[in-house]
TrEMBL record:
Pathway: Metabolic intermediate biosynthesis; chorismate biosynthesis; chorismate from D-erythrose 4-phosphate and phosphoenolpyruvate: step 1/7. GO terms for molecular function: 3-deoxy-7-phosphoheptulonate synthase activity. Belongs to the class-I DAHP synthase family. Gene3D superfamilies: Aldolase class I. InterPro entries: Aldolase_TIM, DAHP1/KDSA, DAHP_synth_1. This is Phospho-2-dehydro-3-deoxyheptonate aldolase. It comes from Galliscardovia ingluviei. Keywords: Amino-acid biosynthesis, Aromatic amino acid biosynthesis, Transferase. NCBIfam families: aroFGH, PRK12755.1. Residues 61-363 form the DAHP synthetase I/KDSA domain. SUPFAM superfamilies: Aldolase. Signal peptide: none annotated. Its EC number is 2.5.1.54.
């Protein structure tokens, strides 16, 4: 009779074959393995309507057109650094949806709905990982909330963008997403390149945290090719995935610890590197600039100045910038993560954000600049 003991135990009654079935050489540092339902269960529970799927499909196409130079508008990815409160996220989405409609001739506005946070060392890793912000790590609840929030935002006619961090998460959410990012800390990761090669939406690779562009440019090329790798399907079975390659990968300039890279010379330098590295064809037409992170030293006042600077350059006719990213929420600044009842409503629990009123002004400035450039 098999004696079911946890890995690492030394039960002398176990036979050799039982040792092979429950090898004590495995799972030594695992405390718990807690099953959660497969992606299909979440997709069935929170089904996207035809109207929501149309928002995703149409927005992806518009973004592709912008990235490939067939649409002269500006892609604008704007929203909180991370979402921690569904109510505040939806209030923000209501505000933004109105401006998306108002500026649709000049801007393709997509809301940042970021649920996975890559940390430099340790810290709160986002709503999916710890939705109650209290260290209880209810990932099942977090995944449900993430999908629900995306669905609610889409119901307003507002498309969503997110960072893909865990390679399994896209199976739960990707039908809802119009633009994906691979962050600076993962931009050289083969796993993320493989993932991007099979994703159904355009994907932006950030420059690396040290400022180097080449890893991101190489990623665009690598992800435009087919790949074969291990993954899971919608029923949670382990599968060997075979991808076609993603023709819509591009570089996002986000600055670095040694300074910004949003100026014209840096953009031209990045474009030259993209051409030299045979980056994905989306990269030939331009870059997206993230005004947050290393481009503003995580200071939202500077972030707004960066957007104003780029808007002036766009109005003056500068080419090579296809999109812009901004971290913005209802309230300025940030606060330490804590359970919801201890937090200031509408304020970021990760990086500092531009407040809503300033965001609205900046979107108007960007729309005017694009109008002028394209007139
Ligand atoms: O976008 C958010 C942060 O910049 C990113 O998660 C890293 O944050 P950290 O350096 O505080 O860990
Ligand atoms: C973590 C982010 O960015 P980066 O990878 O550029 O640090 C982000 O955009 O939330």
């Amino acid at each position: 009779m098999a004696i079911l003991r946890g890995p690492g135990s030394t039960d002398e009654r176990r036979t050799l074959s039982e040792r092979a079935v429950f090898p004590e050489t495995m799972d030594i540092n695992i405390r718990q393995l807690d099953p959660i339902p497969a992606p299909r269960s979440f997709i069935n529970d929170i089904q996207l309507t035809d109207a929501q799927l149309d928002v995703v499909a149409q927005s992806r196409n518009r973004i592709r057109d912008i990235l490939h130079g067939r649409d002269s508008r500006l892609l604008v990815i704007v929203g909180p650094c991370s979402i921690h409160d569904p109510k505040a996220a939806l209030e923000y989405a209501h505000n933004l949806a109105a401006l998306r409609n108002q500026y649709e001739d000049d801007l393709e506005i997509v809301m940042r709905t970021y649920f996975e946070k890559p940390r430099t060392t340790i810290g709160w890793k986002g709503l999916i990982n710890d939705p109650d912000l209290d260290g209880t790590f209810n990932i099942r609840k977090g995944m449900f909330l993430a999908r629900k929030i995306m669905s609610d935002v889409l119901a307003l006619g507002l498309p969503v963008a997110t960072e893909w961090l865990d390679p399994i998460t896209p199976q739960y959410l990707s039908d809802a997403v119009s633009w994906g990012a691979i962050g600076a800390r993962n931009t050289e990761s083969q796993v993320h390149r493989e993932l991007a090669s099979g994703l159904s939406m355009p994907v932006g690779f950030k420059n690396a945290t040290d400022g180097s562009i080449k890893p991101a440019a190489d990623s665009c090329y690598a992800s435009s090719n087919e790949h074969h790798f291990l993954s899971i399907n919608l029923d949670g079975q382990v599968i060997a995935a075979e991808t076609k390659g993603n023709a819509d990968c591009h570089v996002v300039l986000r600055g670095s610890s040694s300074g910004p890279n949003y100026d014209e010379a840096s953009v031209q330098e990045a474009l030259a590197q993209l051409r030299a590295s045979h980056a994905g064809s989306a990269g030939e037409h331009g870059v997206v600039i993230d005004a947050a992170h290393g481009n503003c030293g995580k200071d939202e006042v500077v972030e707004a100045q960066v957007i104003e600077n780029i808007a002036q350059r766009l109005a003056a006719g500068e080419q090579g910038i296809t999109g812009i990213m901004m971290e913005s929420f209802l309230v300025a600044g940030n606060q330490k993560p804590a359970p919801l009842d201890q937090l200031t409503y509408g304020q970021s629990v990760t990086d500092r954000c531009v407040p809503w009123d300033k965001t609205a002004q900046l979107l108007e400035v960007l729309a005017r600049s694009m109008h002028q450039r394209n007139a």
